Amino acid sequence: MAKKTTSRAYLARYFKRCITGPISLLQGLSVTLRYFFNPRKIVTEQYPENRKTLKMHSRFRGSLELIEDENGENVCTACGICERACPNASINILATKNIAGKRVLGRYLYRLGTCTLCSLCVESCPFGAIRMNQKFELSSTDPKDFDLILNQKEGR
Amino acid sequence: MIPSIPHPLGNLIRSVVPYPELAFAINAVIAIIGICAVAFGSAIVLVYMERKVCAHVQCRLGPMRLGFHGTFQTVADTLKLLFKEVYAPGGADKFIFYLAPMIILTSPFLCLCMIPFDYNLQVMESPVAIPLIIAVNGFGILGILLGGWASNNKYSLLGALRGGAQMISYEISFALLLLFIVMMSGSASLQEVTASQAGNILDWWIFKVPVIGFLAFIMFLVSSTAELNRAPFDIAEAEQELTGGYHTEYNGTAFAMFYLAEYINLVTTSALAVVCFLGGYLPPLIGIPVIDSAFSLVPGFIWFALKVFFMIWVYMMIRWTFVRPRIDQLMDLEWKFLLPVNLLLIAAGAVFISFGWIL
Ligand code: SF4
Ligand code: SF4
Predict the structure, then answer these.
(1) In terms of Cα–Cα distance, which of A60, A50, A137, A136 is closest to B61?
(2) ipTM for the predicted complex
(3) What is the pTM for the complete model shown?
(4) A63 CA to middle of ligand 1, Å?
Protein backbone atom coordinates (compact mmCIF):
# COMPACT_ATOMS: atom_id res chain seq x y z
CA MET A 1 0.00 0.00 0.00
CA ALA A 2 1.27 3.43 -0.85
CA LYS A 3 2.33 5.62 2.01
CA LYS A 4 -0.16 8.31 2.87
CA THR A 5 0.93 11.87 2.24
CA THR A 6 -0.70 14.86 3.79
CA SER A 7 -1.99 17.40 1.32
CA ARG A 8 0.49 19.89 2.70
CA ALA A 9 3.43 17.64 1.95
CA TYR A 10 1.95 16.89 -1.44
CA LEU A 11 1.66 20.57 -2.31
CA ALA A 12 5.15 21.29 -1.04
CA ARG A 13 6.52 18.53 -3.24
CA TYR A 14 4.45 19.72 -6.19
CA PHE A 15 5.78 23.28 -6.04
CA LYS A 16 9.31 22.10 -5.39
CA ARG A 17 9.15 19.95 -8.51
CA CYS A 18 7.80 22.86 -10.54
CA ILE A 19 11.13 24.57 -9.84
CA THR A 20 13.62 21.71 -9.83
CA GLY A 21 12.11 20.03 -12.88
CA PRO A 22 12.81 22.78 -15.41
CA ILE A 23 16.27 23.33 -13.93
CA SER A 24 17.25 19.72 -14.42
CA LEU A 25 15.81 19.78 -17.94
CA LEU A 26 17.93 22.82 -18.76
CA GLN A 27 21.00 21.09 -17.37
CA GLY A 28 20.37 18.15 -19.69
CA LEU A 29 19.80 20.47 -22.61
CA SER A 30 23.07 22.30 -21.94
CA VAL A 31 24.97 19.01 -22.18
CA THR A 32 23.40 18.02 -25.50
CA LEU A 33 23.82 21.52 -26.91
CA ARG A 34 27.48 21.41 -26.03
CA TYR A 35 27.85 18.11 -27.85
CA PHE A 36 25.85 19.35 -30.81
CA PHE A 37 28.00 22.43 -31.39
CA ASN A 38 31.31 20.68 -30.71
CA PRO A 39 32.15 18.40 -33.62
CA ARG A 40 35.46 17.59 -31.93
CA LYS A 41 33.64 15.53 -29.33
CA ILE A 42 32.55 12.98 -31.91
CA VAL A 43 33.93 9.54 -31.16
CA THR A 44 32.88 7.73 -34.35
CA GLU A 45 35.78 6.30 -36.36
CA GLN A 46 35.38 6.13 -40.13
CA TYR A 47 37.03 2.75 -40.03
CA PRO A 48 38.05 1.43 -43.46
CA GLU A 49 38.92 4.94 -44.65
CA ASN A 50 41.05 5.92 -41.69
CA ARG A 51 42.76 2.56 -41.34
CA LYS A 52 46.20 4.17 -41.67
CA THR A 53 45.69 6.67 -38.88
CA LEU A 54 43.37 4.71 -36.62
CA LYS A 55 44.79 4.38 -33.14
CA MET A 56 43.17 2.09 -30.61
CA HIS A 57 42.91 3.03 -26.97
CA SER A 58 45.78 1.82 -24.85
CA ARG A 59 43.48 -0.35 -22.76
CA PHE A 60 42.02 -2.06 -25.80
CA ARG A 61 42.42 -5.85 -25.63
CA GLY A 62 43.32 -7.17 -29.06
CA SER A 63 45.08 -10.50 -28.90
CA LEU A 64 47.65 -11.92 -26.50
CA GLU A 65 51.33 -11.40 -27.14
CA LEU A 66 54.56 -12.14 -25.37
CA ILE A 67 56.62 -9.10 -24.50
CA GLU A 68 59.88 -9.50 -26.34
CA ASP A 69 62.87 -7.21 -26.59
CA GLU A 70 64.71 -6.44 -29.83
CA ASN A 71 66.63 -9.71 -29.71
CA GLY A 72 63.44 -11.72 -29.35
CA GLU A 73 64.12 -12.55 -25.72
CA ASN A 74 61.27 -12.75 -23.24
CA VAL A 75 61.06 -12.97 -19.49
CA CYS A 76 58.65 -15.89 -19.30
CA THR A 77 59.78 -18.55 -16.84
CA ALA A 78 57.36 -21.21 -18.02
CA CYS A 79 55.75 -21.27 -14.60
CA GLY A 80 52.35 -22.05 -16.15
CA ILE A 81 50.33 -19.68 -13.98
CA CYS A 82 48.75 -18.09 -17.02
CA GLU A 83 47.84 -21.52 -18.33
CA ARG A 84 45.94 -22.23 -15.14
CA ALA A 85 44.37 -18.80 -15.01
CA CYS A 86 42.84 -19.11 -18.44
CA PRO A 87 39.17 -20.06 -18.13
CA ASN A 88 39.08 -21.43 -21.67
CA ALA A 89 42.32 -23.37 -21.69
CA SER A 90 43.54 -21.28 -24.57
CA ILE A 91 47.12 -21.33 -23.40
CA ASN A 92 49.51 -24.25 -23.26
CA ILE A 93 53.02 -23.75 -21.90
CA LEU A 94 55.32 -26.43 -23.26
CA ALA A 95 58.36 -26.29 -21.03
CA THR A 96 61.77 -27.67 -21.92
CA LYS A 97 65.16 -27.91 -20.22
CA ASN A 98 68.13 -25.76 -21.13
CA ILE A 99 71.74 -26.95 -21.10
CA ALA A 100 72.01 -26.29 -17.39
CA GLY A 101 68.98 -28.49 -16.79
CA LYS A 102 66.79 -25.60 -15.77
CA ARG A 103 63.12 -25.53 -16.78
CA VAL A 104 62.56 -22.90 -19.48
CA LEU A 105 59.91 -21.98 -22.01
CA GLY A 106 59.87 -24.21 -25.04
CA ARG A 107 56.72 -23.23 -26.89
CA TYR A 108 54.06 -20.77 -25.83
CA LEU A 109 50.96 -22.14 -27.53
CA TYR A 110 48.05 -19.73 -27.75
CA ARG A 111 44.73 -20.54 -29.36
CA LEU A 112 43.10 -17.29 -30.40
CA GLY A 113 40.03 -19.18 -31.59
CA THR A 114 38.90 -20.06 -28.07
CA CYS A 115 40.28 -17.00 -26.30
CA THR A 116 37.67 -14.54 -25.03
CA LEU A 117 40.24 -11.77 -24.66
CA CYS A 118 39.47 -11.52 -20.97
CA SER A 119 43.03 -10.64 -20.07
CA LEU A 120 43.04 -12.86 -16.95
CA CYS A 121 46.31 -14.42 -18.08
CA VAL A 122 47.93 -11.00 -18.25
CA GLU A 123 46.65 -10.16 -14.79
CA SER A 124 47.94 -13.38 -13.35
CA CYS A 125 51.46 -13.47 -14.78
CA PRO A 126 53.82 -12.67 -11.88
CA PHE A 127 56.64 -11.64 -14.21
CA GLY A 128 54.78 -9.28 -16.55
CA ALA A 129 55.83 -11.38 -19.50
CA ILE A 130 52.65 -11.08 -21.56
CA ARG A 131 50.27 -8.32 -22.60
CA MET A 132 47.28 -7.70 -24.84
CA ASN A 133 48.17 -5.93 -28.06
CA GLN A 134 46.11 -3.47 -30.12
CA LYS A 135 45.43 -5.61 -33.17
CA PHE A 136 41.77 -6.00 -33.96
CA GLU A 137 41.68 -7.21 -37.56
CA LEU A 138 42.02 -10.80 -36.42
CA SER A 139 39.53 -12.61 -38.61
CA SER A 140 40.68 -15.22 -41.05
CA THR A 141 39.22 -17.97 -43.23
CA ASP A 142 41.91 -20.45 -42.21
CA PRO A 143 41.50 -22.04 -38.74
CA LYS A 144 45.22 -22.63 -38.61
CA ASP A 145 45.73 -18.88 -38.25
CA PHE A 146 44.22 -19.08 -34.79
CA ASP A 147 46.76 -21.52 -33.35
CA LEU A 148 49.73 -19.37 -32.58
CA ILE A 149 53.16 -19.89 -31.11
CA LEU A 150 53.91 -16.68 -29.32
CA ASN A 151 57.62 -17.02 -28.59
CA GLN A 152 60.23 -16.76 -31.30
CA LYS A 153 63.03 -18.28 -29.25
CA GLU A 154 63.25 -20.83 -26.53
CA GLY A 155 63.98 -19.45 -23.12
CA ARG A 156 67.44 -19.68 -21.62
CA MET B 1 -17.80 33.18 -55.41
CA ILE B 2 -14.55 31.54 -56.29
CA PRO B 3 -11.92 32.05 -53.59
CA SER B 4 -8.64 33.45 -54.81
CA ILE B 5 -5.40 34.67 -53.34
CA PRO B 6 -3.42 37.15 -55.46
CA HIS B 7 -0.24 35.39 -56.53
CA PRO B 8 1.71 36.09 -59.75
CA LEU B 9 1.29 32.54 -61.03
CA GLY B 10 -2.37 32.35 -60.08
CA ASN B 11 -3.09 35.77 -61.60
CA LEU B 12 -1.36 34.75 -64.83
CA ILE B 13 -3.52 31.64 -65.12
CA ARG B 14 -6.64 33.58 -64.22
CA SER B 15 -5.90 36.11 -66.98
CA VAL B 16 -4.99 33.51 -69.63
CA VAL B 17 -7.71 30.89 -69.04
CA PRO B 18 -11.12 32.16 -70.26
CA TYR B 19 -13.41 30.45 -67.72
CA PRO B 20 -12.92 31.35 -64.05
CA GLU B 21 -13.97 27.83 -63.00
CA LEU B 22 -11.32 26.25 -65.19
CA ALA B 23 -8.70 28.69 -63.94
CA PHE B 24 -9.69 27.77 -60.40
CA ALA B 25 -9.30 24.06 -61.21
CA ILE B 26 -5.85 24.61 -62.75
CA ASN B 27 -4.75 26.69 -59.78
CA ALA B 28 -6.04 23.99 -57.46
CA VAL B 29 -3.97 21.35 -59.23
CA ILE B 30 -0.90 23.59 -58.98
CA ALA B 31 -1.56 24.06 -55.30
CA ILE B 32 -1.94 20.32 -54.76
CA ILE B 33 1.33 19.64 -56.55
CA GLY B 34 3.03 22.35 -54.53
CA ILE B 35 1.73 20.98 -51.22
CA CYS B 36 2.78 17.45 -52.14
CA ALA B 37 6.24 18.66 -53.14
CA VAL B 38 6.63 20.52 -49.84
CA ALA B 39 5.32 17.53 -47.87
CA PHE B 40 7.39 14.77 -49.47
CA GLY B 41 10.47 16.94 -49.91
CA SER B 42 10.45 18.11 -46.34
CA ALA B 43 9.85 14.58 -45.04
CA ILE B 44 12.96 13.31 -46.81
CA VAL B 45 15.03 16.27 -45.68
CA LEU B 46 13.73 15.97 -42.14
CA VAL B 47 14.51 12.28 -41.77
CA TYR B 48 18.07 13.06 -42.80
CA MET B 49 18.20 16.06 -40.49
CA GLU B 50 16.80 14.04 -37.59
CA ARG B 51 19.48 11.40 -38.02
CA LYS B 52 22.23 13.98 -38.17
CA VAL B 53 20.98 15.96 -35.19
CA CYS B 54 20.49 12.81 -33.15
CA ALA B 55 23.95 11.59 -34.10
CA HIS B 56 25.68 14.83 -33.17
CA VAL B 57 23.83 15.04 -29.87
CA GLN B 58 25.11 11.56 -29.09
CA CYS B 59 28.72 12.24 -30.24
CA ARG B 60 28.26 10.23 -33.41
CA LEU B 61 28.44 11.09 -37.08
CA GLY B 62 25.22 9.61 -38.40
CA PRO B 63 24.88 8.48 -42.02
CA MET B 64 28.14 9.13 -43.86
CA ARG B 65 28.43 6.63 -46.71
CA LEU B 66 25.82 7.31 -49.36
CA GLY B 67 26.58 10.56 -51.15
CA PHE B 68 28.24 13.52 -49.53
CA HIS B 69 27.90 13.00 -45.77
CA GLY B 70 25.15 10.47 -46.34
CA THR B 71 22.78 12.87 -48.11
CA PHE B 72 21.15 10.14 -50.18
CA GLN B 73 20.62 7.79 -47.29
CA THR B 74 16.97 8.74 -46.75
CA VAL B 75 16.24 8.55 -50.48
CA ALA B 76 17.60 5.02 -50.49
CA ASP B 77 15.60 4.13 -47.37
CA THR B 78 12.42 5.51 -48.89
CA LEU B 79 12.94 3.45 -52.03
CA LYS B 80 13.55 0.38 -49.90
CA LEU B 81 10.33 0.99 -47.98
CA LEU B 82 8.29 1.48 -51.16
CA PHE B 83 9.50 -1.75 -52.72
CA LYS B 84 8.69 -3.89 -49.72
CA GLU B 85 5.80 -6.29 -49.82
CA VAL B 86 2.71 -4.98 -48.06
CA TYR B 87 0.84 -7.53 -46.00
CA ALA B 88 -1.56 -7.48 -43.09
CA PRO B 89 -1.23 -9.80 -40.10
CA GLY B 90 -3.62 -12.73 -39.84
CA GLY B 91 -6.89 -11.83 -38.16
CA ALA B 92 -6.49 -8.15 -38.93
CA ASP B 93 -9.44 -6.13 -40.11
CA LYS B 94 -7.99 -5.57 -43.58
CA PHE B 95 -10.21 -2.69 -44.63
CA ILE B 96 -9.60 -0.58 -41.54
CA PHE B 97 -6.00 -1.72 -41.43
CA TYR B 98 -5.31 -0.09 -44.77
CA LEU B 99 -7.68 2.80 -44.17
CA ALA B 100 -5.85 3.98 -41.03
CA PRO B 101 -2.65 5.23 -42.73
CA MET B 102 -4.73 7.17 -45.21
CA ILE B 103 -6.77 8.80 -42.46
CA ILE B 104 -3.65 9.70 -40.57
CA LEU B 105 -2.19 11.35 -43.66
CA THR B 106 -5.18 13.62 -44.30
CA SER B 107 -4.79 15.84 -41.26
CA PRO B 108 -1.21 17.01 -41.88
CA PHE B 109 -2.02 17.74 -45.52
CA LEU B 110 -5.11 19.73 -44.57
CA CYS B 111 -3.10 21.69 -42.01
CA LEU B 112 -0.37 22.34 -44.54
CA CYS B 113 -2.96 23.93 -46.84
CA MET B 114 -3.80 26.57 -44.27
CA ILE B 115 -0.24 27.61 -43.46
CA PRO B 116 0.71 31.02 -44.93
CA PHE B 117 4.20 30.50 -46.33
CA ASP B 118 4.22 34.07 -47.58
CA TYR B 119 1.66 36.87 -47.81
CA ASN B 120 0.45 35.41 -51.12
CA LEU B 121 1.73 31.85 -50.79
CA GLN B 122 -1.10 29.98 -49.16
CA VAL B 123 -3.49 27.42 -50.51
CA MET B 124 -6.49 28.34 -48.44
CA GLU B 125 -7.06 31.55 -46.53
CA SER B 126 -9.75 30.96 -43.97
CA PRO B 127 -11.08 33.43 -41.40
CA VAL B 128 -11.39 30.50 -38.95
CA ALA B 129 -8.10 28.80 -39.70
CA ILE B 130 -7.11 28.19 -36.09
CA PRO B 131 -10.34 26.43 -34.98
CA LEU B 132 -10.16 24.50 -38.24
CA ILE B 133 -6.61 23.36 -37.52
CA ILE B 134 -7.61 22.31 -34.01
CA ALA B 135 -10.48 20.31 -35.47
CA VAL B 136 -8.46 18.74 -38.25
CA ASN B 137 -5.70 17.73 -35.85
CA GLY B 138 -8.17 15.39 -34.18
CA PHE B 139 -8.12 13.27 -37.31
CA GLY B 140 -4.66 12.01 -36.46
CA ILE B 141 -6.01 10.39 -33.28
CA LEU B 142 -8.59 8.53 -35.31
CA GLY B 143 -5.88 7.11 -37.56
CA ILE B 144 -3.83 5.95 -34.60
CA LEU B 145 -6.80 4.35 -32.84
CA LEU B 146 -8.02 2.57 -35.96
CA GLY B 147 -4.54 1.40 -36.91
CA GLY B 148 -3.91 -0.05 -33.47
CA TRP B 149 -7.35 -1.61 -33.25
CA ALA B 150 -7.26 -3.23 -36.67
CA SER B 151 -3.81 -4.78 -36.23
CA ASN B 152 -5.03 -7.63 -34.01
CA ASN B 153 -2.03 -7.22 -31.77
CA LYS B 154 -2.11 -6.39 -28.10
CA TYR B 155 0.90 -4.12 -28.28
CA SER B 156 -0.63 -2.15 -31.12
CA LEU B 157 -3.88 -1.83 -29.25
CA LEU B 158 -2.17 -0.71 -26.05
CA GLY B 159 -0.11 1.81 -27.98
CA ALA B 160 -3.15 3.12 -29.78
CA LEU B 161 -5.19 3.49 -26.61
CA ARG B 162 -2.37 5.24 -24.83
CA GLY B 163 -1.77 7.42 -27.85
CA GLY B 164 -5.44 8.32 -28.04
CA ALA B 165 -5.61 9.19 -24.36
CA GLN B 166 -2.47 11.27 -24.61
CA MET B 167 -3.40 13.17 -27.73
CA ILE B 168 -6.91 13.94 -26.55
CA SER B 169 -5.54 15.29 -23.27
CA TYR B 170 -2.88 17.43 -24.85
CA GLU B 171 -5.26 18.62 -27.54
CA ILE B 172 -6.83 20.75 -24.79
CA SER B 173 -3.65 22.64 -23.91
CA PHE B 174 -2.76 22.88 -27.57
CA ALA B 175 -6.12 24.40 -28.42
CA LEU B 176 -6.11 26.72 -25.42
CA LEU B 177 -2.68 28.06 -26.35
CA LEU B 178 -3.78 28.69 -29.91
CA LEU B 179 -6.84 30.47 -28.52
CA PHE B 180 -4.50 32.57 -26.40
CA ILE B 181 -2.97 33.79 -29.64
CA VAL B 182 -6.40 34.34 -31.15
CA MET B 183 -7.28 36.43 -28.11
CA MET B 184 -4.10 38.48 -28.41
CA SER B 185 -4.23 39.14 -32.12
CA GLY B 186 -8.01 39.46 -32.29
CA SER B 187 -8.34 37.18 -35.29
CA ALA B 188 -8.37 33.47 -36.07
CA SER B 189 -7.03 33.82 -39.59
CA LEU B 190 -3.36 32.93 -39.85
CA GLN B 191 -2.69 35.80 -42.27
CA GLU B 192 -4.08 38.30 -39.79
CA VAL B 193 -2.26 36.67 -36.89
CA THR B 194 0.94 37.18 -38.86
CA ALA B 195 0.00 40.71 -39.81
CA SER B 196 -0.65 41.57 -36.16
CA GLN B 197 3.04 40.90 -35.46
CA ALA B 198 4.35 43.38 -38.03
CA GLY B 199 7.17 45.60 -36.88
CA ASN B 200 10.45 44.61 -35.34
CA ILE B 201 11.38 41.47 -33.49
CA LEU B 202 9.83 42.69 -30.24
CA ASP B 203 6.42 42.75 -31.88
CA TRP B 204 6.31 38.98 -32.19
CA TRP B 205 3.84 37.44 -29.79
CA ILE B 206 6.56 35.61 -27.90
CA PHE B 207 8.04 38.97 -26.82
CA LYS B 208 5.14 41.34 -27.30
CA VAL B 209 3.23 40.11 -24.28
CA PRO B 210 5.76 40.47 -21.47
CA VAL B 211 6.71 37.20 -19.73
CA ILE B 212 3.49 35.31 -20.39
CA GLY B 213 4.14 35.34 -24.14
CA PHE B 214 7.34 33.42 -23.49
CA LEU B 215 5.59 31.14 -21.02
CA ALA B 216 2.91 30.42 -23.57
CA PHE B 217 5.58 29.60 -26.14
CA ILE B 218 7.27 27.09 -23.80
CA MET B 219 3.93 25.49 -23.02
CA PHE B 220 3.12 25.36 -26.69
CA LEU B 221 6.40 23.50 -27.20
CA VAL B 222 5.46 20.96 -24.54
CA SER B 223 1.89 20.35 -25.62
CA SER B 224 2.74 20.25 -29.31
CA THR B 225 5.51 17.71 -28.69
CA ALA B 226 2.87 15.57 -27.03
CA GLU B 227 0.48 16.24 -29.91
CA LEU B 228 3.15 15.12 -32.34
CA ASN B 229 3.65 11.89 -30.43
CA ARG B 230 7.36 12.54 -30.43
CA ALA B 231 9.78 11.66 -27.69
CA PRO B 232 9.83 12.54 -24.80
CA PHE B 233 6.09 11.98 -25.15
CA ASP B 234 6.13 9.05 -27.56
CA ILE B 235 3.94 6.97 -25.29
CA ALA B 236 2.03 5.68 -28.30
CA GLU B 237 5.17 4.12 -29.78
CA ALA B 238 7.27 3.37 -26.72
CA GLU B 239 9.69 1.06 -28.47
CA GLN B 240 11.02 -0.29 -25.21
CA GLU B 241 7.64 -1.47 -23.94
CA LEU B 242 5.38 -1.79 -26.96
CA THR B 243 7.79 -2.61 -29.82
CA GLY B 244 6.58 0.35 -31.83
CA GLY B 245 3.01 0.75 -30.59
CA TYR B 246 0.23 1.34 -33.06
CA HIS B 247 2.37 0.81 -36.15
CA THR B 248 4.02 -2.41 -34.99
CA GLU B 249 2.26 -4.47 -37.64
CA TYR B 250 2.67 -2.04 -40.50
CA ASN B 251 5.37 -2.39 -43.11
CA GLY B 252 6.27 -1.16 -46.54
CA THR B 253 4.18 1.63 -47.97
CA ALA B 254 1.65 1.69 -45.12
CA PHE B 255 4.45 2.17 -42.61
CA ALA B 256 5.99 4.83 -44.84
CA MET B 257 2.68 6.69 -44.69
CA PHE B 258 2.72 6.72 -40.89
CA TYR B 259 6.27 7.94 -41.00
CA LEU B 260 5.45 10.59 -43.57
CA ALA B 261 2.48 11.80 -41.51
CA GLU B 262 4.74 12.11 -38.48
CA TYR B 263 7.19 14.34 -40.31
CA ILE B 264 4.62 16.47 -42.11
CA ASN B 265 2.98 16.96 -38.74
CA LEU B 266 6.32 18.14 -37.46
CA VAL B 267 6.44 20.70 -40.25
CA THR B 268 2.90 21.94 -39.74
CA THR B 269 3.26 22.21 -35.99
CA SER B 270 6.54 24.07 -36.32
CA ALA B 271 4.93 26.30 -38.92
CA LEU B 272 2.05 26.95 -36.55
CA ALA B 273 4.48 27.86 -33.78
CA VAL B 274 6.27 30.19 -36.18
CA VAL B 275 3.03 31.85 -37.31
CA CYS B 276 1.66 32.22 -33.82
CA PHE B 277 4.75 33.17 -31.86
CA LEU B 278 7.66 34.00 -34.15
CA GLY B 279 6.15 36.39 -36.64
CA GLY B 280 5.41 34.03 -39.52
CA TYR B 281 6.99 35.14 -42.76
CA LEU B 282 7.96 38.57 -41.41
CA PRO B 283 11.69 39.31 -41.39
CA PRO B 284 13.31 39.58 -37.95
CA LEU B 285 13.90 43.34 -37.89
CA ILE B 286 16.14 44.38 -35.02
CA GLY B 287 15.99 48.16 -35.28
CA ILE B 288 19.31 48.85 -37.05
CA PRO B 289 18.35 50.50 -40.36
CA VAL B 290 21.11 48.97 -42.56
CA ILE B 291 20.51 45.39 -41.45
CA ASP B 292 16.76 45.88 -41.47
CA SER B 293 16.64 47.03 -45.06
CA ALA B 294 18.84 44.10 -46.08
CA PHE B 295 16.61 41.69 -44.18
CA SER B 296 13.49 43.14 -45.78
CA LEU B 297 14.87 42.33 -49.24
CA VAL B 298 14.84 38.61 -48.49
CA PRO B 299 11.50 37.11 -49.57
CA GLY B 300 9.10 36.12 -46.82
CA PHE B 301 8.97 32.41 -47.57
CA ILE B 302 12.73 32.15 -47.02
CA TRP B 303 12.35 33.69 -43.57
CA PHE B 304 9.45 31.35 -42.98
CA ALA B 305 11.50 28.30 -43.98
CA LEU B 306 14.43 29.41 -41.81
CA LYS B 307 12.20 29.90 -38.79
CA VAL B 308 10.43 26.60 -39.38
CA PHE B 309 13.74 24.78 -39.58
CA PHE B 310 14.87 26.46 -36.40
CA MET B 311 11.70 25.26 -34.68
CA ILE B 312 12.18 21.75 -36.04
CA TRP B 313 15.72 21.78 -34.72
CA VAL B 314 14.36 22.77 -31.31
CA TYR B 315 11.89 19.86 -31.43
CA MET B 316 14.73 17.52 -32.35
CA MET B 317 16.95 18.72 -29.53
CA ILE B 318 14.05 18.18 -27.15
CA ARG B 319 13.49 14.72 -28.52
CA TRP B 320 17.06 13.57 -28.17
CA THR B 321 17.72 15.17 -24.80
CA PHE B 322 14.82 14.48 -22.52
CA VAL B 323 13.76 11.20 -20.99
CA ARG B 324 10.30 9.82 -21.47
CA PRO B 325 7.81 10.08 -18.61
CA ARG B 326 5.59 7.16 -17.73
CA ILE B 327 2.02 7.28 -18.99
CA ASP B 328 0.62 8.29 -15.59
CA GLN B 329 3.26 10.99 -15.16
CA LEU B 330 2.38 12.24 -18.62
CA MET B 331 -1.28 12.51 -17.69
CA ASP B 332 -0.33 14.17 -14.41
CA LEU B 333 1.67 16.75 -16.31
CA GLU B 334 -1.26 17.62 -18.52
CA TRP B 335 -4.17 17.58 -16.08
CA LYS B 336 -2.40 18.74 -12.93
CA PHE B 337 0.07 21.20 -14.35
CA LEU B 338 -0.43 22.33 -17.94
CA LEU B 339 -4.19 22.74 -17.88
CA PRO B 340 -4.44 24.86 -14.70
CA VAL B 341 -1.47 26.96 -15.75
CA ASN B 342 -3.03 27.34 -19.15
CA LEU B 343 -6.30 28.62 -17.76
CA LEU B 344 -4.40 31.04 -15.54
CA LEU B 345 -2.43 32.13 -18.57
CA ILE B 346 -5.56 32.93 -20.52
CA ALA B 347 -6.97 34.86 -17.56
CA ALA B 348 -3.68 36.74 -17.27
CA GLY B 349 -3.81 37.41 -21.00
CA ALA B 350 -7.23 38.98 -20.61
CA VAL B 351 -5.89 41.19 -17.79
CA PHE B 352 -2.93 42.19 -19.95
CA ILE B 353 -5.21 43.14 -22.81
CA SER B 354 -7.63 45.13 -20.68
CA PHE B 355 -4.81 47.07 -18.99
CA GLY B 356 -2.98 47.53 -22.26
CA TRP B 357 0.27 45.97 -21.01
CA ILE B 358 1.10 44.69 -24.44
CA LEU B 359 4.26 46.25 -25.85
S1 SF4 C 1 42.74 -13.56 -22.47
FE2 SF4 C 1 41.52 -14.89 -21.17
S3 SF4 C 1 40.78 -16.48 -22.55
FE4 SF4 C 1 42.43 -15.45 -23.60
S5 SF4 C 1 44.24 -16.65 -23.15
FE6 SF4 C 1 44.13 -15.04 -21.60
S7 SF4 C 1 43.03 -15.94 -19.90
FE8 SF4 C 1 42.66 -17.25 -21.69
S1 SF4 D 1 53.61 -15.90 -19.26
FE2 SF4 D 1 53.90 -15.41 -17.15
S3 SF4 D 1 52.44 -16.72 -16.07
FE4 SF4 D 1 52.65 -17.54 -18.13
S5 SF4 D 1 54.22 -19.10 -17.97
FE6 SF4 D 1 55.27 -17.23 -18.57
S7 SF4 D 1 55.88 -16.27 -16.67
FE8 SF4 D 1 54.41 -17.84 -16.12
Answers:
(1) A50
(2) 0.71
(3) 0.82
(4) 9
